[in-house]
Design a protein that fits this description.
Strand content: 15-25%
Helix content: 25-40%
CATH topology: TIM Barrel
Strand order of the largest sheet: 1-2-3-4-5-6-7-8
Structural class: alpha/beta
Number of strands: 8
CATH class: Alpha Beta
Radius of gyration: 17 Å
Distance between the termini: 34 Å
Order of helices and strands: EEHEHEHEHHEHEHE
Shape: globular
Largest sheet: 8 strands, mixed
Length: about 220
């Protein structure tokens, strides 16, 4: 599997577990606020898969989980093989995904290669293309939501509250996941090359309250 980076220790990326985070290159979205923009293009730096696997092997029993993030990991054809190797070392496995490859998500769940999935819900339908700066297949995104909602793998949905999004956009977005028991509204963190400031904390909190009133759940991250 192509790998563009490794965070050797994270206490935030897998609920309740110390984890390593493996970053895959390339993405089929181009969100303006992406903090991994340096790995989503075709000139992304790469590291040896064997080096990463050796590190993980040495951390067996010390780390509890491995998170595969990106970029967009489901674009990697050999993702299932990598996850199987990680699973055989005894790690819990979490996948971060934008949900554009529902059949990959479904297959990974059917192969029992995932313990947790975090899917980014980028925006309301009418602003999906604007936020991701590309054309999106909303049917595929809905299908990923369906597979997660009807599968047995623990999962969450999360939305970064980008400056381009309003409270009304967030409320429209969460209609896609109504009935979920894990939704996180993430405070936008301004990249160095992005001029727009984040929403004020009061506005974020009021939006989270409105989401809870609408779908019954919303936790703020990063405020």
């Amino acid at each position: 599997m192509l790998i563009a980076g490794l965070q050797k220790l994270s206490l935030l990326d897998y609920p309740g577990e110390a984890a390593a985070v493996v970053f895959t290159p390339y993405c089929n979205m181009n969100c303006s606020y992406c903090h991994n923009a340096h790995i989503i293009g075709r000139d992304a730096p790469l590291m040896e898969e064997e080096e990463v696997l050796e590190y993980l092997h040495k951390r067996c029993g010390l780390l509890g989980a491995v998170v595969v993030s990106g970029g967009e990991p489901t674009l990697q054809p050999t993702l299932p093989l990598f996850l199987r190797l990680v699973r055989e070392m005894g790690f819990l496995v979490k996948l971060d995904t934008n949900g554009t490859k529902p059949e990959v998500i479904k297959s990974l769940m059917q192969q029992n290669l995932l313990d947790y999935v975090a899917m980014d819900l980028k925006a309301s339908e009418r602003k999906y293309d604007e936020i991701t700066r590309g054309k999106n297949d909303m049917q595929a995104i809905r299908k990923s939501i369906f597979y997660l909602r009807n599968g047995s793998v623990a999962h969450e949905f999360r939305t970064t509250f980008a400056p381009e999004l309003t409270r009304e956009d967030i409320l429209a977005a969460v209609e896609l996941i109504e009935g979920t028991d894990r939704f996180f509204l993430q405070q936008y963190r301004k990249p160095s090359d992005h001029d727009a400031p984040p929403h004020p904390p009061t506005y974020v909190k009021e939006t989270a309250k409105a989401v809870r009133e609408k779908i019954g759940v919303c936790v703020i991250r990063g405020l």
